[in-house]
Amino acid sequence: MIRLNNVVASYKTERGVVNAVDGVSLEIPDGCIVGIAGESGCGKSTLMKVIYGDIGFPLALASGSVDYGFSDDSGKPVTSRNIQKEWFKRISYVPQSSMSSLNPVIRIRKQFLDFQDQTGNKAQILEQVKSYVKKLGLPEESIDSYPHQLSGGMRQRIMIAMATFFQPEIILADEPTTALDVVVQKSILLLLMDLQEQMGNTIILVSHDMGVHYQVTDKMLIMYAAKAVEYGDSEEIFQRPLHPYTRLLINSLPTIGDDRAREGIPGRPPSLWNKLQGCRFADRCPLATDRCRNEEPEFVEYRPGHFAACHYADSEANLSEVS
């Protein structure tokens, strides 16, 4: 089980220090797919970097910790501060853009070998790589290509192959279907689901697309303005959301056979540079009161395994099921 304990992650800039993740605490069970959703700039990708341990200037882990539930070879518990030694072996990362992540002037096979144990037999390793990429739906000869010679979907499959080659316990996928057409998107998501089922690992998936979360994830974390505002089983969140922001996100999804006009959420998220008071969604929330604007809601468990940060999460006005 992965435990996030009051994680605060900040960026140091010329304007000063800004918290991109502010006090996030939750538990992620083993062997499931967990989605992180929210608008651009809410802290999704920064939280992924913290979980991966990719922390370096200008990003800093200001406070809190991430515990992974396993120890290193010396028996020392692994946290976000020493997880780097476990990269690829026990935790891997699939970035947003395969084109900017793969070295454009090095063939794919060489990039595979770069993160392998170089004490092994190179020819034997390459045979294993060929077999693995074929299993993931790629021709064996694709590893002899340069990244620009492959399609976007093929490059993304290569990134997934690299991330899963050692069968890590945790896979982080940050917008893995960005800039891909819908057919390729579906194939990438099905590939991740198949791999998770075969390996039994934990996948944490970032996507701004609520439809992706509905199809793929077992659990969901909703973030808003650097805060966790809702977390629980995906099915229950879609049927009985506790936070007004979550409800508005779900209601914005187009549905086949439903010709109602879809509306965006009015207003915009608050600037994280400002001194924020109360609920950060208050200025856009249809249920907001003076209490919301002045008192920050706690992130509490309203139903078994279902958490939310809203003063009125269990009020009658906020409990009708999403139609």
3D architecture notes:
The chain is an alpha/beta fold and 323 residues long. The chain has helices at 44-52, 98-101, 108-114, 122-135, 152-164, 182-199, 210-216, 234-239, 244-251, 290-294; strands at residues 2-13, 16-28, 33-37, 59-71, 77-79, 91-94, 170-174, 202-206, 219-224, 227-233, 300-303, 306-308. The chain has a domain at 2-224: 3-Layer(aba) Sandwich (Rossmann fold), CATH 3.40.50. The protein has 10 helices and 12 strands. The strands form 2 sheets. Strands 6-7-8-3-9-10-12-11 form an 8-stranded mixed sheet, with helices on both faces. A 4-stranded antiparallel sheet has the order 2-1-4-5. A hairpin with a 2-residue loop joins strand 9 (219-224) and strand 10. Helix 5 runs parallel beside helix 6 (182-199). The two termini are 33 Å apart. The model has no long low-confidence stretch (mean pLDDT 89).
Lay out the secondary structure:
Elements: E1 2-13, E2 16-28, E3 33-37, H1 44-52, E4 59-71, E5 77-79, E6 91-94, H2 98-101, H3 108-114, H4 122-135, H5 152-164, E7 170-174, H6 182-199, E8 202-206, H7 210-216, E9 219-224, E10 227-233, H8 234-239, H9 244-251, H10 290-294, E11 300-303, E12 306-308
Parallel strand pairs: 3-8, 3-9, 6-7, 7-8
Antiparallel strand pairs: 1-2, 1-4, 4-5, 9-10, 10-12, 11-12
Helix pairs in contact: 5-6
